[in-house]
User: What shape does this take?
Amino acid sequence: MTKDQTRGSKPVIMPHSYDGIQEYDQSLPNWWLFTLFGSIVFAFLYWLANFVTGTLPDDRVAINTEIDALEARQLAAIKDLDEPTLWKMSRNSKTVAEGQAVYNSLCFTCHGPTLAGIKGLGFRLNDDLWVHGNTPTAIFNNVSEGITFEGKPTGMAAQKVLGTGRIAAVTAFLLSKQKEGAMKVIPRKDEPSQLTP
Amino acid sequence: MKPTPIRESVTTIGHDGTRRFLQPALIFGSWWRARRAVAWLLIAFFAALPWIEIDGFPAVFLDVEHRHFHLLGTMMGLGDIWLLFFVITGWGFLIYATTALLGRIWCGWACPQTVYLEHVFRVVDRLFEGDHVSRAKLDDQPWSAPNKMLRRGARAFAYLVLCWAVAHIFLAYFISIPGLYPMITDAPLAHPAAFVAMAIATGLLFFNFWWFREQLCLIVCPYGRLQSALIDDDSVIVGYDEKRGEPHGKAAPGIPTGDCVDCRRCVQVCPTGIDIRHGLQMECIACTACVDACDDVMTKLKRPTGLVRYASLRELNGGKTRFLRPRTVLYAALLVIGLIVASIAVLRVQPAAFKLSRPPQTELYALSEASVANVFRAKIQNKDEIPRRFFISAESPATKVTVLNQSVGMVIAPLTEITLPLTLLVDRQDYRGEFNFMLRLRSEDGEISLLQKAHFIGPDPRTLKQ
Assistant: This one.
């Protein structure tokens, strides 16, 4: 620290003058200069770490890792969902109630509030006639991945919206209206709710 | 030797840029007592708000995590955030209006920086390190001096505890007292984000009150710099009556002197290190310490008080302060207009919110033999304390739109939000191409009625002709 010689005396006026305006020769506060030079140093180090050496973790990598972990968890959950498990779930009143709540929050818009189907939108789901497969896992997959008909998606792929747990529950809800071994596959044109009255 | 304040430089910054610390004297005057009462009231108010419950929620609870903002019993969602416009402009306006009338009373009486520094942290200073003389002496002593380490350390510890407490109260505004309590009792690692936020807030407060102090007012805060644009000759400021006081100095035979005896008491008590006798300065936070100091001396000298006082520049020059002037009249008119508009806006806020979007991963429209279908996703929020039954209907004068599954409506619990898919059908016969229409959300009791614009997507109508 230099000895402050001019304490209490007027600061020196600098020789230049612009439009008659002159300025004093004053020092900026050291703490202020510290924030200025500190941010310059930080910007340089940040640029170095982020763009040159790549030391800092990349946000994209972090997000992808997280998504991968999520997908792995979902895949692990799906692996356990075989036919007997889904049938068992469909006889559990708690799971069925949960599935019904999911149905009433989303699926009913196209398949109707009573599962009767809506003409031109969704198939009837409360009878034993099935167009896209007559097994619990087929229903689960259709809800999860959607249905493609003549190259166009028609059924809604709900995996990203609902997630595995709620899709399993809604599958259990649909199965709760069915008897094991009584589900039949029919061609698309025979779907009762879509036939012209 | 203590630096003598001059107008051209900031007293607390040396010519080499170093920080100079002030140890202002305490003046126990009537203004100081009034300011202390206001400060304690403000601190009590700040500390009490998170504890006061209105309708089951804290009076002020900015629940950033759930994006709900509880204000005095009403809940606002993110959709109401535009009302912040009135808060921000209103705040700016009040600053402008009060500065025009009463100068920087905000700085001296209500700013948290002044309130906490003058009435909490300087109290701690006096408690651990004595009055301004012994504090200055302690400043100059080396660390090896007896008791310096102990007194500074004890003071720093007291500061830390206080900053920690203030940071907790502040955080309570965002996570509420019931949310805060487990964070205090659990291990720090159980809530790492909250712990880090708390540590940073405590550290910043500590730095501010221990080291930074008046630098915040002088260099960081823009208000003082705007002062010259915000005040005029009739604004009431803390000013020195030059006509009465000058020429200052000790009375001596043959030399005419004013009332100012140049005792420098006003300089000793100034928390920003200025000499008020130099006139209105950017550094002055209008704290009235110099008013109290000068009144004290004048009383002892049996002279009239008020050599330094609340007065306008016009009054100090021998005129009379005009409170009623075009500027203040205009401000009053604008205040009335602003209050009316803000009141209308707040009263029109309905205790529900209604937003529309398209569900992801779906077709834009679906075709059946009889109709064209669109699916929307409606987000409905019941912001009220009671459950309500809602219905959604389409308002479309040109084309008839049917909303499916809305005959019984839906009941939404208090303070909850539901997302609901909506299927809208238009008969093929009625369909004449894409069109705009409105969807109305209304409650069964008729209290709520909200409109949202919507666009019906469909194919070119010519492709539908058989």
Notes: The longest strand of chain B covers residues 371-382.
